[in-house]
Amino acid sequence: MKGLIAYSSLTGNTAKLADRLAAGLADLGDWTLADIKKGADASGYDCILAGGWIDRAWPDKAAKAWIEDLPADLPLGIFVTMGALPESPHGDRVKENLASLLASHGTALGMAVLPGVVEAKLLDRVRQMPAHLLGENGESIKQQMVEAGEQSRMPTEEEYQAGVQVFREAIQGWLDQKGDLQ
Ligand SMILES: Cc1cc2nc3c(=O)[nH]c(=O)nc-3n(C[C@H](O)[C@H](O)[C@H](O)COP(=O)(O)O)c2cc1C
After folding, report:
1. How many CB atoms lie within 10 A of CB 181?
2. So what's the pLDDT on residue 182?
């Protein structure tokens, strides 16, 4: 099985998750890691794990566009890192959005949504942002963004392992099913 792990990462959180997935799934196939922004080509692979960082509850623009361009018959899993905690209302929105991206693929290999540290420079920019730019409830939205950023963190070892496990089970299930059909 030839798999591609393609990712987009601004500050390293998602790149690290991509590395962890490649290491954790190594026994299931032959994996290639590729940076979407440097031009990742999905042709010739049996399955794809695509990753990005979360921006306004969606994978970042580069990752989202790349995912949307994938052929629908290619088995796909999606992994992301986000500044807010995955177990939050914002995390639920992210999961709904990822599910909608997976829905157009015949074989969906699931999703891994992990926390990621918000870079200090970005957090400073949010702190300095005039609240009215964020709309009617600007002040409370800004406060939520600052708090989420201050509480942001690296994934724990267990969270990395759980991410690996999601894809391990889905890929094994897909390979078993494929084997039955042959
Ligand atoms: C411009 C920008 C917008 C962001 N928007 C969100 C967001 O809507 N929700 C969220 O949870 N995190 C948001 N984040 C935080 C990142 O998704 C998070 O820190 C992620 O782990 C970064 O991944 P990377 O290190 O691979 O770039 C944003 C970060 C940036 C730079």
Report:
1. 5
2. 60
